[in-house]
Amino acid sequence: MDRGFVLLGLLLAAAHRRRLEVLADDYWAEVGMNETEFGPLRRSPQVAPTEQRLRGAPRTWGVPHDPNAALLGGVAGHAGVFSTAADLATFAEHLLAGDRWLAESLRPQIAIEAGRSRGLCWIVTDAGVAYHHGYTGTSLYLAPATGRYLALLTNAVYHGFSASRLTPLRDLALALLEQDG
Asked: How far is the C-alpha of 61 from the C-alpha of 51, rounded, in Å?
């Protein structure tokens, strides 16, 4: 999946003859996401440190974890974006307010497990909730039928990566959004 978004980012930049981070900045400004940007970010109290890649070394801070994004200078179609809960809420509200891309992107493309399919960048449940999560666990869940959403900002790699740490959070988020009303 990442390769497709890496290629999409490269194609967008080539087609518009502008760097991906410039295209993204324009989009985020149009939507009202004023605290979202590609890294690297300066170390500050507003930026959480994440993993310690080498014992005794400092934790990474404000840089993407993905090695492919690192090779692309930290700006890639699949990784390297840093945001806030408020900006993710703005994005979710924009999508749920009738963004024309959302309906098509939620259409199931292929079943991945019982009750879940892959849409275009989203995992879609049979109950109609869609979600996307990043490597550190930061996730966005959307329930278009009810207009509800949940933005989850986590730091699941602080003590080393383990995908199993994210499963209870994912299950709770889905349970909350799949409830009626």
From this structure: 8
